[in-house]
Amino acid sequence: MSQQYRTTGGDCGCGPVCPPPPPPQSGCGCGESFRQALNLLCSQQFYTLVDFSAFAFLSSYYVLGASVEAPTGGSAPGDNLTALSATYRCGTCGCETVAASGTLYPPTVGGLAQNITVSQAVLCRLTAVAFDAADDASLTSTANFQAIFQLFTQLLQPAQPQGCVSVMDSVTAGVSRTATLSAGPLLLENVQVLGQLGQLLVLANSTDERFYLVCADKIDFIG
Fold it and tell me: What is the pTM of this model?
């Protein structure tokens, strides 16, 4: 399938395409699910709707593309991230990484920017990825947010019930399909649960017109 690339979303030029992925590594977390989700954003369905220069990549120890702030609280959807500024570039960057660049911050409120150069994110180490809808001359970010929302609603499978109450069950319980949760440095409040992609939960924040890919195994607390 051919793809039309923006400057910020173009091929990272990091080397040849990987062979088919090996079986999931022990302790790899949600690495392959993150790869599938990020590849989906590069497809023709999503590509023009996503702002590829407004990403954040979160691990347990650092956040690329946003600093952590105290949440505002209240009933509106929200998170504890500042404006997203990391760039994600479609294309292969090795078999275990993706091309991601931006400013690196510690996962603490008021943490100072780290003066180092980052060019890749290791998929197995990610806790979550956040990204914004695009805002361009043809469509507003609100229209793009709604389009992404509808695509995810159509494509994602609902979280599957388990024999016991799993994390997926706990997050998706209730009629409203909204959730408050923490995953590493990320705190989400009253965001909408759109479904499940592999080991990831996909969530939406209508206040900031923002989406989240969260590794279910990294969820610490549920509100």
Answer: 0.85
